[in-house]
Design a protein that fits this description.
single chain, alpha+beta, five-stranded antiparallel beta sheet
């Protein structure tokens, strides 16, 4: 397999993983609540969709999730636990995004240098970054499930029959970004192996010519 094709593919997947994670962090379709209550004639849409930073209710209402500004003393133990999980998510995913920027720079330098050690180190760095993305997404799923359990405890079972909840495309985009981060790391590992094998081959040819 050609070295140039492998590193170009790795560069593309690394850039695409960054772009997808940026889109996921900035959009508000991580969690969707669809309410289809029959005979409801109110002016407001009861459905909502939320992201890492905002909750959008109906067509025009939006509220910021107060992860760092909430008065913790006025909250219940369950609410404090949920906010704690949310804080972890909104720290880990943007941190992963920043780390990907440096990873792409390291990948460019190591691919131009054709150094197997640098390529292997950059590959390990991308796999390390993917752990941040994986952890952030997994904790968000846990946070959403626990929030739904708390919601079910408050709302009557009769009203719950009209509520349909699902994860949105923003979460799917974050999962795809994680997959591409892993793919980038594996491609860089392959590039390091190709460079190492080429170095051994060139050394063998040189020795044979002496």
């Amino acid at each position: 397999m050609r070295y140039g094709l492998v590193v170009l593919t790795a560069g593309f997947t690394g850039l695409l993983s960054f772009s997808l994670l940026a889109v996921a962090i900035g959009t508000d379709y991580w969690y969707i609540i669809d309410v289809n209550k029959p005979n409801y004639t109110g002016p407001d849409d009861l459905s909502s969709h939320s992201g890492l930073w905002r909750i959008n209710e109906g067509a025009n209402r939006s509220s910021v999730i107060p992860s760092f500004t909430a008065n913790m003393s006025s909250l219940s133990e369950a609410e404090r636990h949920l906010l704690g999980l949310h804080k972890v998510v909104v720290i880990m995913l943007p941190l992963s995004l920043v780390l990907l920027v440096f990873g792409w720079i390291f990948g460019l330098v190591s691919s131009l240098a054709c150094s197997p050690n640098l390529l292997a180190g950059t590959a390990s760095y991308f796999l390390f970054c993917s752990l941040f993305t994986l952890s952030g997404v997994s904790i968000y799923i846990r946070y959403s499930n626990q929030a739904m359990e708390e919601f079910q405890r408050i709302v009557s079972p009769e009203n719950l029959t009209y509520v349909d909840v699902s994860f949105g495309w923003s979460l799917a985009t974050a999962w795809l970004s994680y997959s591409l981060e892993v793919a980038t790391g594996l491609l860089l590992m392959l590039a390091a192996r190709i460079t190492q094998m080429k170095g051994h081959y060139d050394s063998g040819v040189t020795i044979a010519m002496l």
